[in-house]
Amino acid sequence: MRTEILRYMEKNSRVNLEELAVLLGTDEVTIANEIAQMEKEKIICGYHTLIDWDKTGEESVTALIEVRVTPQRDQGFDRIAERIYNFPEVNSVYLISGAYDFLIILEGKTLKEISRFVSEKLAPIDSVMTTATHFILKKYKDHGTILTPKAKAERVLVMP
Questions:
Q1: pLDDT of 97-110, one tens digit each?
Q2: What positions does the domain Transcription regulator AsnC/Lrp ligand binding occupy (predicted)?
Q3: Nearest to 64 by CA among 84, 87, 91
């Protein structure tokens, strides 16, 4: 039942306990207790609202920054990751496979602000060897939600 609750909540964090209870064939109290327990166990770590910032008129830039590092002895990547994720500008830090070690998601008001973060805060960290910054130009789908409507097919009426 936990997996079903989590999958439902992943798509809609504004959970309707009555609807979820009906879908899972149980009662609202059981669902509420399961959710409370998963919050206590930190299985559910928080709740977020997905906002299409492009539609708000607010200027912002999202960047994906690949970072290659030299892991520290006896601490691997964890200490470096902690140092990076403690910057308030950083939204996410992932340890990844491939040519780079970390993928950092960063938000700022301008390209210059992002560039300044990379050059003045990230690059000077002792273990950081190289970085590559990629700016998100347009979001089509985020967290499973399609943000741009499908293009309507334009059909021309042909008269015989």
A1: 999 999 999 988 89
A2: 65-138
A3: 91
